[in-house]
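_Backbone structure tokens_
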Amino acid sequence: QVQLVESGGGLVQAGGSLTLSCTASGSIASIDVMGWYRQPPGKQRELVAMITSGGNINQEDSLKGRFTISRDNAKNTVILQMNGLKPEDTAVYYCNALLRTTGSASSPLYNYWGQGTQVTVSS
């Protein structure tokens, strides 16, 4: 059993900062890719940033320079530092991980999602 738990969401004024964290726990052998998607009100879920265990990053181009992703592999944790927040950043932010579980010699990749954390940026 694997669980992804997000924290750090909240209400912030435009121009402010928030730090989101997500920690995966359970029977995890390895996490190949971990990161964040978001779903603004009335819109589809969209990529924010993902990072591999080796540190390679796939990030939405429009967010580069304001959002920074990092991870602590030992703690199965991914961090999203959000600076210069804008009202259009308001969304539910979801942690996502592609991981392999313990208990078998060659686990397939599983796609796990957190329950989401609300980020609201006021104008």
Summary: The first strand starts at residue 2 and ends at 7.
